[in-house]
Amino acid sequence: MIALKGAQVSAAIKEQAEQEIKKLKGKVPCLAIVRVGERPDDLSYERGAKKKLESFGLESRSFVFPETIENESFQKEFKAINENPEIDGILLLRPLPRHLDEKAIEKIIDPQKDVDGISPENIAKVFAGDETGFAPCTAEAVIQMLKVNQIPIAGKRVTVVGRSMVVGKPLAMLFLKENATVTICHTKTENLNETCKNAQILAAAAGKAKMLNQDAVGEGAIVLDVGINVDENGKLCGDVDFESIGDKAAMATPVPGGVGAVTTAVLALHLVRAALSRMD
Ligand code: NDP
Prior knowledge:
Mean pLDDT: 97
Strand content: 15-25%
Order of helices and strands: EHEHEHEHHHEHEHEEEEEH
Shape: globular
Bound molecules: NADPH dihydro-nicotinamide-adenine-dinucleotide phosphate
């Protein structure tokens, strides 16, 4: 089995971004990272995103609010960031604390600055197969992982495990746009292993440590693991038991070092495109 590493795909995306940065005539795009509270997952993603943006020559600014912030105040603060002309793109770290209305923020965010594809306009475009908006970065990272490695998608049987609006559903739509034959699995799916085993490309986005093993992987399958979990020993792992599928899969992404590394590269590329669109 070949390990599909994120670093090489991220480097290819960087090259693409560098071409587009030239059109910005010296302007350096700036991402606002909006965080409420100090969740370790958010802090880790924020660190990774900042590092990646810096390596692309892009700027980021963190806007951090206490977990106790009231809904009305948060919306006011968010609107100010949204309207700030120095900000080209916004990444909202989610989920927000329950008392904050996430749906309202999705409607407030300017679709042109919505580099992680959370606004109704950008989501609708993903579902319509319209590439003029921003798709959620993780979903697009999976597609980039395949494209940069020149793995054909059209006509292939693809199974996506997970149907969240953050990953599973948009990813299924992006696969459909690439002319794959798509199956979506979730907690009510019967015979999950059989359905997964039938796939030529299997994408796991369930958020359950090592839930898929060799019994869920067909001979020669390409496995993309989106999951970021912690195993019983406190180690980072994916939704797929990477070690167990070595004799079945043709290629698979490791965790860490797989899809996650590409997600932040896609975020950086989106930021460049957001800045370009604001120059028009
Ligand atoms: P959610 O919890 O929102 O959704 C999980 C989905 O998986 C649900 O649709 C759920 O089904 C399904 N699911 C859960 N357990 C099972 C099971 N046992 N069998 C079949 N389906 C199952 O998670 P997210 O979509 O937000 O994230 C998924 C994973 O991706 C997480 O590990 C997260 O950390 C990771 N992630 C990684 C990113 C990256 O950059 N690599 C970025 C974002 C997320 P149902 O709808 O029926 O409940």
